[in-house]
Structure formats: structure tokens, C-alpha cells
Amino acid sequence: MGTVRAPEHDLEKGELEEVNPTQAFFNEVAALRQENKDIQAKIQTIRELQTESLSKVTDEETAAVNNQISAHVAELSKINAEMTRRIKALASKTKEDSDNATHVKLIEKEFKQAIHRYQEVEVEYKKKMREQLARQYLIVNPDATEEDIKRVQEEGNQPIFLTAIMDARREQGSSALNEVRNRYKEIQKIEQTMEELADLFTQLNQLVYQQDEAIEESRAKAEKTAEDVEAGANTLGVAVEHAKRARKNKWWLLIIVFIILLIIIFAVLFTIKPWE
Q1: C or N terminus of the chain, fewer CB within 10 Å?
Q2: What pTM, to 2 d.p., does this model score?
Q3: 169-173: which pairs have CB atoms within 8 A and are 24 or more residues apart?
């Protein structure tokens, strides 16, 4: 087999070099597996930053950590999208019944596990922020109802806060309001991230592998044979039914002929009366 020009870390783009097709495939597999490890490490970094954000006291500290989180999330979003594209590209160049498909499916499985872990981290962070929103609201409005708290958690309802601040210490209430604004923005970002992750799952579940032409030809022949057998069976069934009817009609004809002969014999006997 000759050589082709293929990227070192990507089968579709990048710096080109002379690489054997088989070697190019395994280079990409190795690169994707390393990329997946990097993704898992970045997810852990995001989780640690989220924990740090929840423990900050001042608005400035919280904003600084949240900016770091946003930067890592944006970077990871691009990495995940590119990872999905590369897995799809590799799958489309791999025959489904080949050993190479096993390597691609393993990468897909590992990547899905990382995405699932990322979803768990985001869900947990959202849950804790919602709890923090409820605590902040209760600071300025200890008599808040469950419905009020739910509206703040789901809508970041600032008018409710402003009303509560009128009856609370202004400095404390303003700080709580800023906290609500920040946390609600983070919750919105998490919801957007969750939508992106769900879309990645959908794309991965729709991976398309190459079909071996020989297999496809055999499959087509098998389907044609099955159709012919079914058609033949139907024809044979009709023929058998016709044969059954013919045999049945033959027996009825014999019976009728026999009866007619008996009638003729009796008619002749009674005419000539041989016994007289």
C-alpha cells in the first residue's frame, strides 16, 4: 500500500506529512484519546473553580472566579465541538465491521463518559447556586413564601428583591441583590452549556460508518433472494390450492358418473325385466 499525505493530529486539516493510512488512523486515535484526558482534566478544573466561587464573600472575588469559569467553559465548548467533529470524521472513514471501528467506538464511549461527567458537574453547581439564591433572598425577606423563593430561583426576579430591600437594611439588601444577579447569570450559562452537551450526545449517537461494498452487495442479494423465495412460496401455495380443488372436483365427477351408471342400469333392468 502506498503512502498518502495526512495530518499528524487530524485526518482533515493541519500540517500535512507523508503518513501510511494505517499509521495516520492510529495517530488520530492516539491524539483523540489524549484529547479526551485533557477534557476530563479541564472538567475537574471547572468543578474546583465552581466550588471556589460558591465560597467567595465579596462581589469582586466572586466576579473574578466566575470570569475564570466562563473562560474555561468557553474553551471546553470549542474543544468538545472539535472532538465531536473529529470522531465523526474518523467514523465516516472506518468500515463498520472492521477492527478500526472498535477503536473509534471506544473513543466515542470515553468521550460520552466525559460529557456525562461534565453534565453532572454543571447540574450540581446549578443546584448549589439555586440554594444560595434562596438563602440570599431570605436574608432580606425572612417571611418569603416558597413561591417567592422559587420565582427568584427560576427567574432571577429582581422586583421581588427590590421590594424586600425597602424593608431591610439597604447595604445588606443591595449586596444580596448583586449576588442574585450574578448567580442567575451563571445559572443561565449553565443551562446553555447543558443544551450544547445534549446536542453533542445527539451527534455522537448518529455516527455513520462506511459500509463494506462486498457486504452491501451480499446484503442486497440476500434481500433479493428472500423476496424471490417469498414470491415462489406464494406461487406454490396458489398451485397447491388449485391442485387440491382439482382433486376434489375429480372425485365429485367420479361419484356423479357412478350414480348416473347406477340409474341407467336400474332403468334397463326394469325395462327388460329379466326375472320374468
Answers
A1: C
A2: 0.64
A3: 172/139, 172/140, 173/139, 173/140
Cα separation values, 226 from 63, 211, 230, 232, Å? 68, 21, 6, 10
223: in domain = no
- Region of residue 273 (phi > 0: left; psi between -120 and 50: alpha; otherwise: beta): left
Query: Cα–Cα distance between 5 and 92 in angstroms, integer?
Result: 18
Residue 224 lies in a domain: no
- 174 and 203 fall within a common domain: yes
Q: Could you tell me if 133 and 36 lie in one domain?
A: yes
d(CA 126, CA 186): 8
pLDDT tens digits, 137-176:
777 777 777 877 777 666 655 554 555 544 444 445 556 6
pLDDT tens across 82-139, in order? 999 999 999 998 988 788 999 999 999 999 999 999 999 999 998 998 888 788 777 7
Helix axes 99-140, 170-204, angle to 10 degrees: 160
Q: Are residues 78 and 197 in the same domain?
A: yes
The one-letter code for the residue type at 67 is N
* CA atoms of 108 and 116, how far apart (whole Å): 12
With CA atoms as reference, report the closest residue to 157 among 168, 167, 169, 145: 145
- Beta-strand (E) ranges in 15-64? 16-19
What's the structural domain count of the chain? Answer: 2
Of the two residues 128 and 242, the one the predictor is more confident about is 128
Cα–Cα distances in angstroms (integers) from residue 88 to residues 109, 152, 207, 219, 261, in the given order: 13, 41, 6, 25, 85
Judged by DSSP in three states, 14 sits in: coil
